[in-house]
Amino acid sequence: xxxxxxxxxxxxxxxxxxxxxxxxxxxxxxxxxxxxxxxxxxxxxxxxxxxxxxxxxxxxxxxxxxxxxxxxxxxxxxxxxxxxxxxxxxxxxxxxxxxxxxxxxxxxxxxxxxxxxxxxxxxxxxxxxxxxxxxxxxxxxxxxxxxxxxxxxxxxxxxxxxxxxxxxxxxxxxxxxxxxxxxxxxxxxxxxxxxxxxxxxxxxxxxxxxxxxxxxxxxxxxxxxxxxxxxxxxxxxxxxxxxxxxxxxxxxxxxxxxxxxxxxxxxxxxxxxxxxxxxxxxxxxxxxxxxxxxxxxxxxxxxxxxxxxxxxxxxxxxxxxxxxxxxxxxxxxxxxxxxxxxxxxxxxxxxxxxxxxxxxxxxxxxxxxxxxxxxxxxxxxxxxxxxxxxxxxxxxxxxxxxxxxxxxxxxxxxxxxxxxxxxxxxxxxxxxxxxxxxxxxxxxxxxxxxxxxxxxxxxxxxxxxxxxxxxxxxxxxx
Length: 478
Hints:
GO terms for molecular function: propionyl-CoA carboxylase activity; transferase activity. The protein is of the alpha/beta class. The chain has two domains: 9-214, 2-enoyl-CoA Hydratase, Chain A, domain 1, CATH 3.90.226.10; 239-394 and 447-462, 2-enoyl-CoA Hydratase, Chain A, domain 1.
């Protein structure tokens, strides 16, 4: 089949799952309503194909909306089929994958359709943090369906035909589709609403298969491992030159240079995604100060500060990792908080959420300080002060309240340049160096850049059986 051809609802399932593994559930279920001439309309499977199968041997449950059956609209029985799939998935502890292509709510069954949406939302909420939920959008995903997609852990969009919106572009004040198509994949990728955009349907389905293969099936599954064929002691000769483009650094230290990046086009100064270390799935979070192209030329630069979007991006990822017992690795290189009028509206709330996510997580947490680590922004980035289990630092890293020269200027205001220079050097040695932090126990070891991989792997191996008790509570409120 051509890569550009529109796949049917059943073709999408076939392409997603291992060969001949799909078992349909509820194939004969259809509408009950006869209002508004529905009795004369054929709606095969009530517009949604549901069932289960395997991906690389891993059990998954799937629903795929059929736009050829009354537009794939959601009515009473359509919703019940999806809810039933969730019930089965929760019983056995397997992911749910939703393939969205729907005109939305079925108007002929308005009240029952509203009830159906509510039933699905409730199932998704119950499943959150218990089983992974993945949504892929291939056609229209509007109104209440957009909420469904965002209740998932990961959402994917096909680049050309997929449309995601709560309100369509033409209904927005002073906007129209040709001016700013707020339903397009490109718009939502840059806004952080979706995690991955594929150039066609087959690429989206392939990436979902890849994601399922590296995730645990549920929050009590410890089988998200693969055989490691990489050298555990592999040195990283170019690691120090890759620190500024943290994506390159992450790829360099991962098994066989594997990296599944998430939200690539949103808050690019913060990099998140999954890597493998000694075959184990690990969540990676890193600050980035520049983006390099394939020729090593700088394409974009960032000032090394924490932004609101970057904090929100990382916080949700850390929360997911913690829910599914996925260890977290952080590469810290941050000089403070972004300082603009716009950022000031959100940065306190956003940084609080990221601080809470790291501090609240009980999974193994390892931090490598690869550059600057200044102020409370450094504390937020998985520091030992808020619960990191192991913290390493590179020899030239800087850890403290602020740049040493600026600190000297403040403390010795009015003194000569020579005095300020002397005091800046003294401050850097006593209050801003990796060695001074290590002497105080805030860093566990100072390591050479080329040895980062082996130290991180050994740290996670040591933390493999980690358990941590917390105060008894229903849940946090941040």
